[in-house]
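Anyone able to model this chain together with zinc ion?
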Amino acid sequence: MARDYYGILGVSRDATDDDIKRAYRKLARQYHPDVNPDPEAHEKFKDINAAYEVLSDDKKRQMVDLGGDPLAPGGGGGGPGGPGGAGPFVGFQDIMDAFFGQAAGATRGPRPRTRPGADAILRLELDLQETAFGVEAPITVDTAVICTTCSGAGTAAGTHLATCETCQGRGEVQSVQRTFLGQVVSSRPCTVCQGHGTVIPSPCPTCAGEGRVRTRRSLTVKIPAGVEDGMRIRLAQQGEVGPGGGTAGDLYVEIHERPHDVYSRRGDDLHCRVTVPMTSAAMGTRLTIKTLDSEEAIDVRAGTQPGATMRIRGKGVPRLRGQGRGDLFVHLDVRTPTKLTSEQERMLRDFAKTRGEDIAELSKQGGFFSRMRDAFNGHN
Ligand code: ZN
Ligand code: ZN
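re: yes, here you go
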């Protein structure tokens, strides 16, 4: 009498291959001798394996459907497990799948050969004039680009990838060890195919199978007006092409602004220092200031003090996003003459006398300290 293989797996006679596999996995997890020490479970497990061996094989399943038993002695089949039952495992892979397959397959599986490329960064030195008003800067980039010989496939002309024989295309190999804790299954990437599941029998001679080659390219990057030191301009997909010709990463151009001789920059504002003689500061004067892109006349008011600041509106750096420009701040250094002719000294003495400033006394007694002493005396 033929055994009821469908009944053993608990599936209907019109079950699909997937139904059968799913049912087998479920039962195998339940009755595997390592999980279930009951001797009856062991027998049951044998039956389950036998049923799966038969029903997962189109020819054997057909025999069952015609009323035969491919595993029975003289039943016509004589499967690999021999009469009375399949071997301990239907197939190593099937039993692995029963315990780990679906979950593992869903999350791991072979590593794709084609992967996205990395971003690249490039430092670009610019003058203030260029960061302020923008520039089209030529740059040279060293990155991986797609191999034009094989268009990224990595295979020599007319050849194809082949399934890795070591891992059967799974990209990983699994091993089972028995330990005192029970059965431990470990899987690691296949070293033959580096986890890809495929091998390249004849690599492309240009890229040696990488699908990409390193090249030096020249590009022009458009720097907008108003960029600042440290900013990065992103050039989409101008970075590294990935392994297997994968989509290129982005290229970031990092702006480095060279220090300017005259102007220092704070945001969109510029600052500069201008020296005016003591007399001009006292009496007032008109100065011509060179800005980044024009000349501006500014009036220094009479009585201007050292450190005074004048603002020229809208003569700083153009704003990166939006309208207008920053301001230019002119810091005035009032210069005191360091050498005087005797005539100049006499004139300044007279000048001081008219203002009631006792210069002779101060200089004779050592300036600062005598003034300090006078200040203390004044308070005593
Ligand atoms: Zn492999
Ligand atoms: Zn190539």
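The mean pLDDT is 85.
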